[in-house]
Amino acid sequence: MDTKRYREAISHFATGVTIITTLKDGKPVGMTASAVTSLSLEPVLLLVCISNKIATHEAVEQSQKFVVNVLGEGDGELAMRFAMPVADRFAAVELRTEFDLPVIKNAIAHFVCDVHERFPGGDHSIFIGRVVDCSFSPDSRPLLYFRSKFGALGA
Length: 155
Description:
The mean pLDDT is 94. This protein is α+β, with helices and mostly antiparallel strands. Strands 3-2-6-7-8-5-4 form a 7-stranded antiparallel sheet. A 3-stranded antiparallel sheet has the order 1-9-10, with no helix packed on it. Helices cover 16% and strands 44% of the residues. The protein has a single domain (3-150), classed as Electron Transport, Fmn-binding Protein, Chain A (Pnp Oxidase, Chain A), CATH 2.30.110.10. It has helices at residues 3-10, 55-63, 76-83, and strands at residues 15-16, 18-24, 27-33, 36-41, 44-51, 65-70, 109-121, 124-136, 144-146, 149-151. It is globular.
């Protein structure tokens, strides 16, 4: 399979955009992710796919906890900051203070998870999280990712 062709084809699958966060040595770490999906209601599980090569992978493995922060339609710049190598991704990002993990204050939804299982997935790992807390903004609109660009829902 030609990986370039695969990447072009899969870019036609519209997804929501999230930032996966956790702590490493007491400091927040995170990354932009679109490979997130609901898995089960009994028990309540979701899964995230994280590249084996990045710091967030190691941090989730160590902490055994993570947060999925769902981004809203105006959060393209924030998504890009967490997708690129930046010295302090969390600069000027407000976090909610009632959690032990970094929950982004302006996320339109969040899911706090304990790692339930981890599976290999090629150059990524599939982390299945047991959701221990979640909330959402009822009138919010999601940031979408389609054909390698950010977008929003139509009317």
